[in-house]
Design a protein that fits this description.
With 181 residues, the chain is mainly beta. Helix content is 4%, strand content 41%. The chain has 2 helices and 15 strands. The strands form 4 sheets. It has a 6-stranded mixed β-barrel with strand order 4-5-10-6-9-8.
Amino acid sequence: PTAAQVPLVRGTVAARLEFRVHNGLVTIPVRVNGSKELRMYLDTGMSAPVVLLFHKESIEELGLKAGPKVFVGGAGGESRKQATVAPGAAVEAGAIRLDKQPLVVMDDAREGSEWPIDGIIGKSLFDRYLTEIDYDRSAVTFYEPAGAEIDPDAAAIPVDLATGYPIIEGAVVLEGGARVP
């Protein structure tokens, strides 16, 4: 096999999903409480282990119990918007099942929404599984961390998540050889 065909992670596969790219972002199929397939952005920058749904109609459609109101801030400093917390849903991504998953449902209606996608999922999966995203095959694979091995030839790039956003340190090498962090 070529280098592109060898997985970087070897171990027990929890789920392998085909993904699509929408507006430059990876989307995966997800089900909530046994629903029809929903499309969700797979977000490496989510700071909380919740699933965010974009449309208020989702509460009724998915049989969710509406809880308290909260305000949610968006990426890039967007203004905060009102949302409803819906505790305790069953969320499935392929063979992965997240029980008692908290959901946050935006109070925006689907009609006229700027979001053609159903929601966002991220930290809830990344906190539990090693994840390999293969853009050549349009596949994302989640591995059980116990017993998993990373290919020794793989390059490790530390990602700092302390701020809730993925930050990678790097440098640019200028023509004269100077490095700028």
